[in-house]
């Protein structure tokens, strides 16, 4: 597979705030904070099972941590599919899926979380909560389509709009005279 993302493309992605939604300084902070955590988890997985090969032997990562982080950020910002990201980064879709699955929890751990007893119902309450704690928030306003069974819609429609020629509460098949 040919890689679209090389060193120059990676630098361009980091420089362009439109792609990831973050400044290069924030991405550098994420790499510095999350990179060691990812490496520790990766090493823990390797040492948790008996080894068949020597340390350092075997296949190397085709997707380095910075690329894993960038793929996750692009996925979260634009909703790009794993197939598209796999083409860009020159790896298999399962590698992207695994990378996003590894990096996303680390981003959540680093991020701002709300205490379980705090309930924020309106945007004003969210802004007030963030202002009081001195934090910056990112709000995901992505519209999510909810599919409902057709029967529910038809029942709702029938309950709100009576058929032509009869009034509400009047039984079917009777003379209204």
Q: What radius of gyration results from the CA coordinates?
A: 26 Å
- SS class: mainly alpha
First-to-last CA distance: 78 Å
**Mean pLDDT value:** 79
Q: Count the E strands.
A: 0
The total of helices stands at: 8
N to C succession of SSEs: HHHHHHHH
Q: Please report which band the strand proportion falls in: under 5%, 5-15%, 15-25%, 25-35%, 35-45% or over 45%.
A: under 5%
Overall geometry comes to: extended
Helix share bin? 55-70%
Low-confidence stretches: none
Largest sheet: none
Detailed description of the structure:
This protein has 177 residues and is an all-alpha fold. It has helices spanning 7-15, 17-20, 24-48, 65-78, 82-89, 93-110, 123-133, 150-160. The longest helix is centred in the N-terminal third of the chain and has 25 residues, at 24-48. The radius of gyration is 26 Å and the shape is extended. The termini are far apart.
Write the layout of secondary structure elements.
Elements: H1 7-15, H2 17-20, H3 24-48, H4 65-78, H5 82-89, H6 93-110, H7 123-133, H8 150-160
Helix pairs in contact: 3-6, 4-6, 5-6
How would you summarize what this structure contains?
This protein is mainly alpha-helical and 177 residues long. 56% of the residues lie in helices and 0% in strands.
State the main characteristics.
8 helices; 56% helix; single chain; 0% strand
């Amino acid at each position: 597979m040919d890689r679209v993302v090389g060193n120059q493309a990676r630098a361009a992605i980091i420089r362009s705030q439109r792609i990831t939604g973050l400044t290069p300084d924030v991405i550098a902070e994420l790499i510095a904070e999350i990179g060691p955590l990812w490496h520790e988890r990766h090493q823990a997985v390797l040492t948790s099972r008996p080894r068949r090969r020597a340390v350092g032997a075997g296949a190397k990562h085709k997707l380095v941590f910075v690329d894993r982080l960038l793929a996750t950020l692009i996925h979260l910002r634009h909703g790009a599919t794993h197939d598209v990201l796999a083409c860009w980064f020159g790896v298999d879709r399962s590698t992207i899926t695994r990378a996003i699955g590894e990096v996303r929890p680390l981003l959540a751990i680093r991020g701002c979380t709300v205490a379980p007893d705090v309930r924020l119902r309106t945007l004003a309450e969210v802004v007030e909560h963030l202002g009081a704690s001195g934090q910056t928030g990112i709000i995901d306003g992505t519209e999510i389509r909810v599919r409902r069974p057709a029967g529910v819609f038809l029942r709702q429609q029938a309950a709100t709009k009576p058929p032509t020629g009869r009034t509400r509460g009047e039984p079917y098949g009777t003379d209204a005279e």
